[in-house]
Amino acid sequence: MKFALVAVTALSIGAASQAAQAEIVVGVGTALSGAVASIGIPNHKGIKAGFEYKGEINGEPIRMVVLDDGSDPSTAARNARKFVEQENVDIIIGTAGAPQTLAMATAAAELKVPMVAISPIAPPPEGEGGPWVVQTPQPMPLLVQGVVDHMQANGVKTVAFIGFADAFGDLLSASLKASAEKAGIEIVTDERYARTDTSVAAQALKAVARKPDAVMIGGTATPGALPALALADRRYNGKIYGNHGLISADFLRVAGEQANGIICPTGPVVVAEQLSDDNPIKKVALAFRDAYQKANGEAVQDAFAPYAFDGWLVFADAATRALETGAKPGTPEFKSALREALFTTKEVVGTHAVYNYTPESSLGVDERSRVLVRIDNGEYKLVN
């Protein structure tokens, strides 16, 4: 928690100097500790980059309140209540992990405060007055479809799945099943493991025994490396596919050379310099890298920080339009205007996608948000 408070102080200096003005208050929930901290800490750094990139809205200062949920869904929901009841935030951005984000989003809808989710979730309950939550990550079916298209083009007929035994793993597995069935690809086994497990030897053994043409890894960051290592131990020589959660310095560090050749779907930001100059995402993605370097004193090494940065861009665009209604930050009218602005977002260019939201869709992205990359000695190479 001390880490979060230090971050709030550092990022609120500009707002403090303009205390006479109304301020927009943003509640940032993330996992600075616990099982998904390897996602939550990059998320937090992405928010810092967003503040560096745009630290005020039409002259209105921004104050951030950052809370660590410890990777716990119950704490994430309680943090949402703290944001609203103790800090009177105008919007929430968060958090790391699908179960935690869904818990926070459900609370946000109940409390009637708009939220930008930065982890992929199923649409939460709408709450009174309509939907309150949009999300920046690409929907899992869109990402997985890119993987299955590649499988089909490369003669894969059978695939094994080794993934998390939680909501993330369920969503990835269901998306794979739906796309694979349409492509005529058989899923020969669906093996699961906990994020806190230290070995997936048994799961890998079962998968390899089925002799699949390919294996898809359904883990993320550090624990996502376990299947790659276990498959290498069993000398599996088929194709290996990952997911966007493997675009992580922690994954590369732990998996080492066993990550080579793994193909993952991800957002364009990961290979920004490899994009064509006419791709609108390229300019924003490169600007994000500069802002990240300034805010954090290091180069970005993952795809999680950009989701949070994009969440900040979506918020900033919506807040700009909400202020034009004359509603004042801190009031129910401003929260309502902000919610309406979120769901009328048009062509907001981010690092992962170009965002368009409607009351009927909280997803907001299309095929422009997906590329395939191949891991090659710690680097990501665009797959054409």
What features would you highlight for this structure?
four-stranded parallel β-sheet, Rossmann fold, 43% helix, 384 residues, 18% strand, 13 helices, single chain, 2 domains, globular, alpha/beta
Q: Can you characterise this structure?
A:
By secondary structure, this protein is of the alpha/beta class. The chain folds into two domains: 2-138 and 283-368, Rossmann fold, CATH 3.40.50.2300; 140-266, Response regulator (Rossmann fold, 3-Layer(aba) Sandwich), CATH 3.40.50.2300. It contains 13 helices and 15 strands. The strands form four sheets. The protein has a six-stranded mixed sheet with strand order 2-3-1-4-5-6, sandwiched between helices. It has a four-stranded parallel sheet with strand order 8-7-9-10, with helices on both faces. Strands 11-14-15 form a three-stranded antiparallel sheet. β14 and β15 form a beta hairpin.
